[in-house]
Amino acid sequence: xxxxxxxxxxxxxxxxxxxxxxxxxxxxxxxxxxxxxxxxxxxxxxxxxxxxxxxxxxxxxxxxxxxxxxxxxxxxxxxxxxxxxxxxxxxxxxxxxxxxxxxxxxxxxxxxxxxxxxxxxxxxxxxxxxxxxxxxxxxxxxxxxxxxxxxxxxxxxxxxxxxxxxxxxxxxxxxxxxxxxxxxxxxxxxxxxxxxxxxxxxxxxxxxxxxxxxxxxxxxxxxxxxxxxxxxxxxxxxxxxxxxxxxxxxxxxxxxxxxxxxxxxxxxxxxxxxxxxxxxxxxxxxxxxx
Length: 290
Ligand SMILES: C[S@@+](CC[C@H](N)C(=O)[O-])C[C@H]1O[C@@H](n2cnc3c(N)ncnc32)[C@H](O)[C@@H]1O
Fold this sequence. Notes:
Elements: H1 3-10, H2 17-22, H3 29-37, H4 40-52, E1 58-62, H5 68-75, E2 79-83, H6 93-102, E3 109-112, E4 126-132, H7 141-151, E5 152-164, H8 169-178, H9 182-185, H10 193-203, E6 206-211, H11 217-220, H12 225-229, H13 231-247, H14 254-263, E7 281-287
Parallel strand pairs: 1-2, 1-4, 2-3, 4-5
Antiparallel strand pairs: 5-7, 6-7
Helix pairs in contact: 3-5, 7-10
S-adenosylmethionine (SAM) binds at residues 62-65, 68-69, 83-86, 92, 115-117, 132-134, 137-139.
């Protein structure tokens, strides 16, 4: 199946309702944009973007999919060069063109059916390169980073968000196995932190910030900050369930609970161990030196 066929087929399957909603894969393109631009992930992205490049007016959005980020940036007033190789009317360049017409933003949104390794943009043309969940799809990571460097003006910002990170080959195999859509279209991929950083630095970028999975809502959204904070408590409650079933209210006595936790080797810090999250997502902010 192609990527487009995969998304079309999961839209009607009840077991994928949450994924379709959370990944903004609904067939109603406008509602995807509206949900994305008002969500905590995009608001944090905008905050960081304005913090690092308050003067930016032009953005290249590479691997822009169905246009959620392209339109969200354009609605904020940026001129957006949307680079998306897939022509699809529902999850690719065709969708982005429909959206830009819908929002009357054709003057602000320029769509090119091209790859991030060869965008067709001029050298130094943009202030920011934004890549959401697409750097890990690069067919040549170094080629994509070289191209981002070329099209940015000196001092310009590279902002890559939500890319899958793997620790080694075994971890990659686990990620691909766990990925809900890889079995349908076979196009998933991931790189190590060292490979992402290496490609950026070899191209000439200075890395300003790197956010591991639990370090930014940009990565763990749609989970909220509150849900992440409460993860350890939730896991502890799950772990205590058998004790409650056996001894009832006695499980509320703290030394009984502490004994049981030790017996079960419960470590609240391990809840936040990224090794437990297949293909955990990272984000990077890098700069082309002045
Ligand atoms: C997971 S989707 C992300 C789409 C969108 N950025 C989003 O966050 O919803 C990955 C996108 O990258 C595109 N893509 C794949 N290889 C690419 C490449 N080499 N250069 C640019 N885009 C690519 C795909 O067509 C797809 O639309």
